[in-house]
Amino acid sequence: MSNTLKLIISIAIPLLVGGISGFFTDTGVGSWYQTINKPSWNPPGWIFGPVWTTLYVMMGIAMYLVWKKEASAILKKTALSLFAIQLVLNFFWSFIFFNQQQIGWALVEIIAMWVFILLTIFAFANVSKTAAWLLVPYISWVSFATILTYTIWQLNK
Fold this sequence. Notes:
Blueprint: H1 3-29, H2 32-35, H3 48-68, H4 73-99, H5 103-125, H6 129-134, H7 136-155
Helix pairs in contact: 1-3, 1-4, 4-5, 5-7
């Protein structure tokens, strides 16, 4: 498989996951989310689309760098497996929070996602330092989202 095709696939996977999870976000934002208590520092709704799109592209490039790198098969398999797990967790946060409206469970889930992003960063660093660094904005945003989720949970208990 050519590197160009690997790059396209690598970027398409997180964008596809994000697009599908965005469906759950859109259905919840339009009704339920507008009615719950949120902190004064809650970002405006328009910011989430551009931020997540940028992060998904960066995640895809990071995945590509690991996939194409000549490295130990076990290191690559571990790194890409952890990446897949955190991506699945990324998908389910929107579903749990917006579709199921379970803020407490969404908090538990986003903490697990954060842990798997961190593990992915360490695993990527064993294969490609650049790939690991490309995930730093992602874990930073998810750290903010975790604090936001916790705060929303506290405000709506």
